[in-house]
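Appendix B. Chain record.
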Amino acid sequence: MSYSEIKADMQSRLTKTAEALKKDFSGLRTGRATTALLDGIMVESYGAIVPLNQIGNVSVADARMLSVSVWDKSMLKKVEKAIVEAGLGLNPMNDGIVIRIPIPPLSEERRVELTKIAGRYTETARVSVRNLRRDALDGIKKLKNANEISEDEQKRYENEIQKLTDEGIKELDEMLKTKEIEIHQV
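Structure tokens predicted for this chain:
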């Protein structure tokens, strides 16, 4: 593997890490109704565990209300139970046809808790970025040991990888700041 391949691989994996963090953040409730809030909910359906969006339609009824229309009405109780057990602080209302989920305003205590969760998600992403750096540096060492690059090139490449790492972590930190502002503004 050449240095350009190592660098390109790291850049694409950095992008994937940022996208994964963005997806994790979308599941954090900020007081506004969004279908992404229910993306991580899994429901037991006919002996299999499936995502909620595979057994019904999730839609935004208004700014503070989600609705779930389940295709098989016998699944309503299981979907309702899965939403309650997801730990999102939501209380679904089942009318026998549709499950309505009011999104309550966030308490200050819940905002602090969500901020901590966002911080944990970000730290996990930072660890991923550091692991990417380690993998890239190992690749550069292998090139040096195989006498494919000189010591000067090795140092230059290692510095470039460190700059990529710093940029990646900076992007993650900016995403966290944006999410914290979003959590505390609503």
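Further analysis of this model is presented in Appendix C.
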